[in-house]
Amino acid sequence: MRGVMMYAPGDVRTEERDDPQIVEPTDAILRLTATCVCGSDLWPYRGVEPMAASPAAMGHEYVGVVEQIGSDVKNVKVGDFVVGSFVASDNTCEICQAGYQSRCIHQVMMGALGTQAERARVPLADGTLVATPGQPDDDLIPSLLAASDVLGTGWYGAVAAEAGPGKTIAVVGDGAVGLSAVLAAKHLGAERIIAFSRHPARQALAREFGATDILEERGEEGAAKVVELTAGYGAHGAVEAVGSQEAMWQAIRATRPGGYVGNVGVSHGVELDGTELFFTSVHLHGGPAPVRRFLPELIQLIWDRTIDPGRVFDLALPLADAAEAYRAMDERRATKVLLTF
User: Fold this and answer.
1) Residues 287 and 102: beta-carbon distance below 8 Å
2) How much is the average pLDDT of 185-195?
């Protein structure tokens, strides 16, 4: 099969890989319908994060049709169209049952297996995969793929920020996760949604997803603007969807005492001064999103065409052009790139 491999920062290639095989009786093999490049894939691409191996199989987002199942798989069957989380989980351990499937005691990171490929092995299939009500129309594929990571991550960020009726929510980050957080905050009933963005196309989509205010200020200036817009109080909650030092403090300082910060940007070089954090009096919660917790609801919302998160994909390329997909996202010519077969 064809799959994407990264050999070194900036060196991405689509080449032949071995077809995946059933390894454990809890595995499933999927024939992927679509996959994509994630913002977190850019960290090793830019050399900011060390590569786990060289070459490394890439990708952790996926939707497709079940081709094979292990002998212990009961919840999905061959022929089902499924969506899975970027973290495989058993969905039965105490941590999963508490709603934190991304930290399952038996977790397997799908990025270690690589889903930017024609086929993928999904461990712990019963706990990881959720079947759609039927075979989806083609126009639903991008939205279902978004549910595999960025939509679920943005949703978790909005939930952690306590988005709800009467609330003001600030969203730091205008990538696919940040835009998804805007969509989630709107669906959860937030009254005011303040999105930070300097990119005209992303500003427009944020507004269509539900943002009531767009701010171009960043850092302390951006946080101060949120406080100003909220009569000196700050937002009830903020979503940090970047992972940088500046973005983290921007989200914290934009939030009022007693408010909530949903930290879903993968942190790189973030350090928090304990004394300063102590006197903010904010609730700080996040981590790798438990996408599996939200998948049944998100799939139904997409199936019913209540939400259209697939609009975060603003470029589609064949898998053979994965190198260009990475370049386009790295250069911010694309928000998120869909890879097709």
Assistant:
1) yes
2) 98
